[in-house]
Amino acid sequence: MAHQNTPKIIYHADDDEDDRLLFLDALEDLSLPAVVQGARDGQELLHTLDKNKGRLPDMIFLDINMPIKNGFDCLAEIRRREDALKEVRIIMLSTSKSPDNIELCHKLGADFYAVKPSSFQGLKDLLQKVFEMDWGSVQKSGSRFLLV
Predict the structure, then answer these.
(1) Measured torsion, CA atoms of residues 76, 25, 31, 11, in degrees rounded to the nearest 10
(2) Are 117 and 93 contacting, i.e. CB atoms less than 8 angstroms apart?
(3) Angle, helix 71-80 to helix 42-51, in steps of 10 degrees
(4) Is position 137 within any domain?
(5) What is the CATH number of the domain that holds 34?
(6) Is 126 a residue whose pLDDT tops 60?
(7) Which of 43, 71, 116, 139 is the most buried (most CB within 10 A)?
(8) So what's the pLDDT on residue 23?
(9) Is the pLDDT of residue 63 over 50?
């Protein structure tokens, strides 16, 4: 596994600056090999993705409730694309536990849905789990869609 220590390129879109900083702190605390590009909303995320087409991210963490362009619209737009970006792993990371939101994210093509943990340790545990996944063998299914 020569690529295991290669830093993952992660995009994280969340309008809450504290949540973006906690995300960075959790990755740093875990010493996970990652380079994170943050965005304040879906529109900024899409703009950044278009600007950096030469290097696709390994995964995108996407909040739902954001101004300008919310996570649903951003997810739908990414999945409708005609380029390699539509295949990037997308993990919805939201405070919402609404079954309707979870189902909509699944239908729109997210790879996983995770309710934002209520503690820093919970966030670290979630990120550790995501980094340890064997993405090659992960298949989308309703029963394994929700990360807890």
Answers:
(1) 20
(2) no
(3) 30
(4) no
(5) 3.40.50.2300
(6) yes
(7) 71
(8) 94
(9) yes
Domain tally for the chain? 1
Question: Residue 55 is encoded by which pair of tokens?
Answer: 């290097």
Measured CA to CA, the distance from residue 61 to residue 130 in angstroms comes to 11
Q: State the number of CA atoms in the 13 A half-sphere of 85 facing the CB.
A: 24
Domain presence at residue 103:
yes
Is the pTM of the predicted complex or chain greater than 0.70? yes
With CA atoms as reference, report the closest residue to 65 among 101, 38, 37: 101
Q: Helix H segments across the chain?
A: 17-30, 42-51, 71-80, 99-108, 120-132
Say how far residue 37 (Cα) sits from the centre of its chain: 11
Tell me the three state secondary structure of residue 41: coil
Token pair, residue 130, equals 């995501």
pLDDT of residue 139 exceeding 60, the answer is no
Give residue 22's pLDDT. Answer: 94
The boundaries of the domain holding residue 60 are 8-132
